[in-house]
Write a structure and sequence with these properties.
about 450 residues; alpha/beta; L-arginine/glycine Amidinotransferase, Chain A; 3-stranded mixed β-sheet; 18 helices; about 35% helix; about 15% strand; globular
């Protein structure tokens, strides 16, 4: 039974821990940062510590902060499924020699970007008054297609209480139901405990007659389909009056905006977006206004202020937009926003000084993530939870000073300072990762979630 009231519902940001095999392999087609940094030497330790420091600073500022563990990497089981055989050492060596791109894919630490973990509907919007979860199938790229099974186990381990939480199967991993999770989904509302409207953004339509005026990108693939978004909405019991389906602008995708959260971010009644975010900007806003109980506050950034190139390079719109008790909002931006004059000027003169609730900007260094194409908003999965639902969480996953200290010490014990793509074939790295992850599940008290723990 749901016991949520408007006053006791909080948004919890569950950030993904950067994994021990964090590397720059340039795997993500359409992700400009990922492709341009492929082959560089990474620092898994620095990346993990940067992510933890961001979480800690937001916790210290009063925001509810959670933690999600990384995936088991390298995924040697995936290599065995693809025909490699022998000992783990032999499988890694053979893959490195015969199919280095496959080895890089099964070592990807992309699960740090938990905005792609799945789509969440809070209890106040669902017909059975439970929080609903659907892991994203991430079928558009092989290195991410490997994630959903473990993601599902992690979510079910943490959100275990069936009185409060409902879990749905991953959508069929076919192009027609290509699903990238909350990176293409935003819930808009008044207070968190009030009913909300769910904005699903898609890049293409797979079946039936294409909607009037729609077109697809020409340079890079559209990762989210309308059919996937509609299926998730059906799974969660969302009605027509609770949903808006909008097409992402194909020109934005071709400019490197592979997910909607690279060009728009919303929270509460505020939608901060670039002029090129939606193919039908006016129609999208009109439908949101018609369905929201609280007046929509659109904050539009025109292309004259921030070019598409600057938007993609700075990840201004991949910032976290956080609600404060006094009705104001805080924008958490990556340090790259300060490096682009037009972007920083827009933040100061247009956003902070504008007629909107955004009153503060926090700058965070997440360079290790940014070089692979993930900013602050990529690193978190938002879950609105009542007091009873927060109490029903399993494990030690809500950040505290003690947990932060334990996780920092864990990273310092197990992570490498540097990792080049050629190091991924090192069997010792695989062993180090398993030891680290086994210790992590004990530290977080979530039980066995990894293939090597399940036998």
């Amino acid at each position: 039974m749901n016991t949520a009231t408007i006053s006791n519902v909080q948004e919890v940001n569950f950030d993904g821990l950067v994994g021990p095999t964090h590397n720059y392999s340039g795997l993500a087609m359409g992700n400009v940062a990922s492709m341009s940094h492929g082959g560089l030497v990474s620092s898994p330790k620095e990346g993990a510590l940067q992510g933890l420091l961001k979480m800690k600073s937001l916790m210290d500022a009063g925001y509810a902060q959670g933690v999600l563990p990384p995936q088991q990497r390298p995924d040697i089981g995936a290599l065995r499924d693809l025909g490699f055989s022998g000992s783990n050492r032999e499988v890694l060596a053979c893959a490195a020699k015969e199919a280095p791109q496959l080895l890089r894919a099964v070592c990807s630490a992309s699960s740090m970007w938990t905005a792609n973990a799945g789509t969440i509907t809070p209890s106040m919007d669902s017909p059975d008054t439970r929080v609903h979860f659907t892991p994203a199938n991430l079928q558009s790229s092989f290195h991410r297609y490997l994630e959903p099974q473990t993601t599902g186990r992690v979510l079910q381990a943490i959100f275990r209480d069936e009185r409060h939480f409902a879990h749905h199967p991953v959508l069929p991993a076919t192009p027609a139901f290509s699903d990238e999770g909350a990176a293409n989904h935003t819930r808009l509302c008044g207070e968190y405990g009030e009913p909300g409207v769910h904005l699903f953004v898609y890049g293409r339509q797979a079946f039936g007659d294409v909607r009037s005026g729609e077109r697809e990108p020409k340079r890079y693939p559209a990762r989210q389909t309308l059919e996937a978004s509609q299926a998730v909405a059906r799974q969660h019991g969302l009605t027509v009056s609770q949903t808006v389906f909008a097409q992402q602008h194909p020109d934005a995708i071709d400019a490197g905006v592979f997910h909607n959260d690279v060009i728009a971010v919303g929270n509460g009644p505020v939608l901060l977006y670039h002029e090129m975010a939606f193919l039908d900007e006016e129609g999208t806003l009109e439908e949101l206004r018609a369905k929201m109980a609280t007046p929509l506050i659109p904050v539009r950034v025109p292309v004259e202020a921030v070019s598409m190139e600057d938007a993609v390079a700075s990840y201004l719109f991949n910032s976290q937009l956080l609600s404060n008790p006094d009705g104001t909002m805080t924008l958490v931006v990556p340090g790259e926003c300060q490096e682009r004059e037009a972007v920083w000027r827009t933040i100061q003169d247009y956003l902070l000084a504008g007629n909107n609730p955004i009153s503060e900007v926090m700058v965070k260094d997440v360079k290790q993530s940014m070089r692979n194409g993930g900013g602050p908003a990529c690193l978190r999965l938002r879950v609105a939870l009542s007091e009873a639902e927060r109490a029903a969480l399993t494990g030690r996953v809500l950040l505290t000073d003690a947990l932060y200290d334990d996780l920092t010490a864990w990273v310092n014990r197990h992570y490498r300072d540097r990792l080049a793509p050629d190091d991924l074939a090192d069997p010792q790295l695989a062993e180090e990762s398993l030891v680290a992850l086994d210790e992590l599940t004990q530290l977080l008290k979530i039980g066995p979630v990894y293939p090597f723990q399940l036998g």
